[in-house]
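lol ok so funny story. i was supposed to be doing the assay writeup but got distracted and ended up predicting the structure for this chain instead. priorities right. anyway since i did it might as well share w the group, maybe its usefull for someone
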Amino acid sequence: MERCFIFAAGTFHGLYERPREGEDFVIAADAGYHTCREVGIVPDLLIGDFDSMEQPSDFENITRAPVEKDDTDMMLAIKAGLEKECKDFILYGGTGGKRLDHTLANLQALLYLRRHGARGFLFDQEFCWTAMENESLHLFREVEWGLLSLFALGEQAEGVTIVGAQYPLTEGTLQAAFPLGVSNHFLQPEAMIRVKRGAVLVGWQIPPSGGGIAMPRWEE
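and the output, tada:
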């Protein structure tokens, strides 16, 4: 399968991309199962330690994990999707809620996916996040004067170039200790981001859920 959809227990802001029945692999991570039921999606797998909901008795394909473990429920779901050889991961319910620590963990998980040959897209409220490393990314403007933000994932990212934005950058350096890349804006229909050495978290503004988005284009 090419795409894996994961529904987690954080705040759900609506479907930006909907799984294709019989084509995409859908995982509910613990209480993300409630979101699946809310939007009329039957997951292929329910996985988690069930500390945020009771294990349902009317669903068969369940992987139960111990509460004391190294992996979050989201990470368990990501690893299950990688075992299915999925390449694109659509993550819902991975932000907000009562736990900032889980939001941060899920942003880190985007880099985990990239380093395992996949790409993750974490959907927040009218924002999408992904991670890139030693590569180029082309983003398409979805909202007039839409926001665009970059953050270093690690000590620093070098050779960072931004084209098509209000604040361009040529062969710059982003450091984890200073948010130089926050709150940029699209000036052109397409913005290009290139990172020669290092990893970067990229977020960009998207329209309200329901209309779909133009997925980014990548270059090595």
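Residues 3-125 form a domain with the Rossmann fold fold (CATH 3.40.50.10240). Helices lie at 32-38, 73-83, 100-115.
back to the writeup now i swear
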